[in-house]
Write a structure and sequence with these properties.
2 copies of one chain form a homodimer.
Chain A lengths: L1 E7 L1 H4 L7 H11 L3 E8 L3 H11 L5 E5 L4 H14 L4 E3 L1 H15 L5 H6 L1 E3 L3 E3 L8 E6 L2 E6 L3 H19 L4 E10 L3 H7 L1 H9 L2 E8 L2 E10 L2 H18 L4 E5 L4 H11 L4 E5 L5 H7 L8 E7 L2 H8 L3 H7 L4 H15 L3 E7 L14 E7 L4 E7 L4 H21 L5
Parallel strand pairs in A: 1-2, 1-3, 3-8, 13-14, 13-15
Antiparallel strand pairs in A: 4-5, 6-7, 7-8, 9-11, 9-12, 10-11, 15-16, 16-17
Helix pairs in contact in A: 2-7, 3-4, 11-16
Chain lengths: 419, 419
C-alpha cells in the first residue's frame, strides 16, 4: 500500500511553522504497514492542490492532506475537493449540530458565520466526525486512489487519524505485515560502523529488510524494518540477522531497544529499578527536565530541577562552594559534581545529573572555551564527571549535552560494568 | 525567482526525524526574496531523486536538495547528480586535503575510506567548501534550473547555506524586493478576526500583499508579505494597509512586532527595561526556562528556575506553605502565587513566573480537573494569578501553558494599562 502526505500552507514553505503533522501521520501509517512514498508541502492555492491531487491520481493508494491552521484554510481544501470530485458543497446538518454544540460548550459563545461554513461539505464525501474541534475530516475515493482531508490543528488531526483514518484503512485496505526492531550500538561512529557491517547490510536488502542509521552522540541506533506477508517469518528473519550483527560487532552491540528514544529507555530503566532522579542544569537551562516531564507518569521518578543559570544561584540553591568556582571556574567537573550532589540532596533523589558549560556564542562567567560542557552524575554510591567539547553553534551545544546526558544515564543504569 | 526544497531520507517519510533543515532553508530563501513553491520529502532511492529533479527541470529557478544524515546518504545524492548531469565522479584533491585536515583536527583519527569517498565529486560541479564538516556542497546549472546539494547534518547545512548558497544566489539571480511586517492583535479569535477584516484582507491581494494568520493562545499575529520591484513603495503600501487595519480593530490592534515569536518579544522587553526574571515550574517542567535560555545572551535577564515537580519540593525550595497546599490543593492560584514569590526571592529577580497544573492524563497530587493550570506572575509591585482549562492531551496542556506565559508576560511588560 503506497501513501503520500500533502501539507498545505505558505507558512510551511517559508519556514514559519515546523511541520509536525506530517511526522505524526507518517509514523502512524508506517506502523500499520503503509509505505510512505512522498511527503509534499504546497502553497495555499487551489491550483497547487489540484496539481498535486492529479499527480498522485492512481499512483498512490492513499493521499492524506492536511490544511493549515484555521477555518479559512479548511475552506480552501473543501472547495478544491468539491471541484476535483465534480461535487458541490451542501450543508451537512449532522455536522452543523455537532459544531454548534462544541462551540457552545468549549468556547462558550454562539456559533459564528465561519463555523456555519464549516458544516458545508462536498455532498458525496464520507465525513470523519471531529469530536475535539469544529473542522470535520473528509474522505473520497476516485478510481484507485483514496483522498483524505484532515484539519491542520495538531490535536484535531491526531484525533481524526486515530479514530477515523486508521480504522478506515484497516477495514478497507489489505495491509502488509511489518516488523521494526531497533538495535543499540556504542563506541563506534557511523562511518566506521557502516564500513564494518557493509556486507551484512547488503545481505539485508536481498531479503527485503531495510536498515536505517540513527546516530546520536556516543551511540548509533540501527533500525531494521521488514515488510512482507508473514509476520512470524519476518520476525525470525530479523532476529537471525541481529544474531549475525552481534557476532560482527561484539564490543559495540548493546541490545535490542524497546523505546523510541534513549530518553525513553532511561525513563523505563528508572521505573523498572524504582529510582528517582533530579537535575541541576546550567547550560541546558531546563531542557533535561522538560524532556523528562514530557512523558506521562514522569512524576513517579522525576522530582525536580534546579536551573541555576546565574553563578550565584549555584551557590545559593545547590550549595556549590564559592572557592570551588574560584579555583576551577564555573565550567568545571568540580562544580558539576557539587551541583549534582546539591540537587541529589535538595530533591532527595537516588540520582542527580548536573550540567555546566559555555553554550556560547559569548564566553560568559568562565574562562573555558566556548562549547566546553561538564556533566556530572551523582548516584547513591558514587559521583561521575565528564568534560566535552561540543563546538558551536549554541543550539548544537545544548542538544548535544542533552543527548549525552541520556547516553551517560543509560550506560549508568543498564550496563554499568562497561562504564 | 521560484525555488523548491527537496529533502531525501526514509527517516523523514516515516516520521522518525523532524525535518528542521527545510524550515531553515525556507526561511533563508524567502528572506532574500525567493518564492518557495514546493517542499518535498522523498525516499533514499536514485529513482525517486531523478524523478523529482526531472519534474522540477525548467519549472523552478532553484532546487535545493539536502541528503539524510551520514556519508552513505551523501554518496547516493552525488551519484545521482553525476548521472542526471551526464558527469562522472572524480577525486577532488582540494576537497580531499580539506576533509583530511578536518578529520585529523576534530575527530583526532586518520582519514577513513568513507571520508576519502567524500572527496569524489561530479567533475563539472561547482564545489561549496564545507569548513565545519566532511561533506561538501555541490552546485550545477542545467538549462533554466540551478540544482544545489547540501549535506543533511543541520549545522553543516546551515553553514553552507549562509556562506555558499546565499552569496551565490545574490550574485547570480535577479531578486525581488521583499517586505514582511507582522502585526500583533489580542482579544479576538481567528474566526471572528477573519470575518471582521474580510474586506480589508481582500483588498490586500489586489495589490500583491499576502496575509498569514499566526494564531497563538490569546492572540493572533498577522503577517503581511509584499513582493515587488520597489522596496520603498512596498513598504509604504504595507504601512498604509496597517493604518487601515488599526481603524478596523482599534480595541485589538497592539502594534508592529519586531521579533519572530512572542517569547522573543518578551526577551527584548526584558532587556530594554533591564529587568531580570526567574521561573518556578511545575506542570511545564522546565519548558519556560528552556525557551528563555535558547536565545543568545539570555543570562543577562534569566537567572534560574526551580522546577518543583514533586509537591514536597515546592515547600522545600520555594517556601510554599503546606497549609496553602492543604487548603487550596497544589493546583491553585494560591500555590502558584507563593511559588512565584518564592522564586523571585530565591533568584533575586524583578519578575518571577510560576506554573502549577494537571497536565494529565492522570490526576496527580491535586483534585482539580485534568487540564487545569494556574499561572502566577510576581513583579516588584504586585502578584497576578490566573486559572485556565487547557483540556487534553498532555502535550497540548504544556504547550498552551508556555504560550500563555509569554502572552501574560508580554501584556505585563508592554501594555500594562490594558491588563
Amino acid at each position: 500500500m503506497k501513501a503520500a502526505i500533502v501539507t498545505i500552507g505558505d507558512e510551511l514553505l517559508i519556514g514559519q511553522v515546523i511541520d509536525t503533522n506530517s511526522v505524526f501521520i507518517g509514523q502512524q501509517l508506517e506502523a500499520i504497514g503503509c509505505s510512505i512514498v512522498e511527503k509534499v508541502a504546497i502553497s495555499d492555492s487551489e491550483d497547487a492542490i489540484l496539481e498535486v491531487m492529479k499527480r498522485f491520481q492512481n499512483q498512490m493508494d492513499l493521499v492524506v492532506i492536511t490544511g493549515g491552521l484555521g477555518p479559512t484554510k479548511d475552506d480552501l481544501t473543501k472547495k478544491t475537493f468539491a471541484r476535483y470530485f465534480n461535487d458541490s458543497l451542501e450543508l451537512n446538518h449532522e455536522v452543523l449540530e455537532h459544531v454548534k454544540k462544541l462551540v457552545e460548550r468549549i468556547y462558550q459563545r454562539p456559533i459564528s458565520e465561519v463555523n456555519i461554513q464549516q458544516a458545508y461539505l462536498p455532498s458525496k464525501c464520507k465525513v470523519l466526525f471531529n469530536d475535539v474541534g469544529t473542522a470535520p475530516g473528509m474522505l473520497f475515493k476516485k478510481e484507485e486512489t483514496t483522498y483524505v482531508s484532515l484539519p491542520g490543528v495538531p490535536f484535531e488531526m491526531k484525533y481524526l487519524v486515530t479514530n477515523g483514518l486508521l480504522p478506515y484503512i484497516k477495514n478497507n485496505f489489505h495491509l502488509n505485515a511489518i516488523v521494526h526492531t531497533t538495535v543499540l550500538t556504542v563506541g563506534i561512529g557511523e562511518s566506521l560502523l557502516s564500513e564494518t557491517i557493509a556486507l551484512w547490510e547488503n545481505s539485508l536488502s536481498s531479503i527485503g529488510i531495510r536498515l536505517f542509521y540513527l546516530p546520536q552522540p556516543g551511540l548509533v541506533r540501527l533500525r531494521l524494518s521488514a515488510i512482507g506477508t508473514d509476520k512470524v517469518q519476518l520476525t525470525k528473519q530479523v532476529h537471525d540477522k541481529i544474531e549475525e550483527l552481534k557476532q560482527l560487532i561484539p564490543e559495540n552491540y548493546i541490545g535490542i531497544s524497546a523505546a523510541d528514544s534513549l530518553m525513553e529507555e532511561v525513563s523505563n530503566l528508572l521505573k523498572l529499578n524504582q529510582l528517582t532522579i533530579s537535575t541541576a542544569e546550567s547550560c541546558t537551562g531546563g531542557s533535561i527536565a522538560k524532556e523528562l516531564t514530557s512523558l506521562e507518569g514522569s512524576s513517579v521518578y522525576f522530582k525536580g530541577s534546579a536551573v541555576t543559570y546565574a553563578t550565584e544561584s549555584k551557590v545559593e540553591l545547590l550549595g556549590v562552594q564559592p572557592k570551588t568556582i574560584e579555583q576551577y571556574s564555573v565550567v568545571s567537573e568540580e562544580v558539576a559534581r557539587e551541583m549534582a550532589i546539591g540537587a541529589k540532596e535538595l530533591f532527595q533523589t537516588d540520582l542527580a545529573v548536573a550540567t555546566t558549560g559555555n553554550a556560547g556564542p559569548l564566553k560568559g562567567d568562565s574562562d573555558k572555551k566556548v562549547g566546553t560542557v561538564c556533566i556530572a552524575i551523582a548516584t547513591n554510591n558514587e559521583v561521575l564527571s565528564f568534560t566535552f567539547d561540543f563546538g558551536q553553534p549554541r543550539s548544537k551545544v545544548i542538544d548535544a549535552t542533552v543527548s549525552k546526558v541520556w547516553f551517560l544515564l543509560y550506560k549508568q543504569l543498564s550496563f554499568k560494568e562497561r562504564v
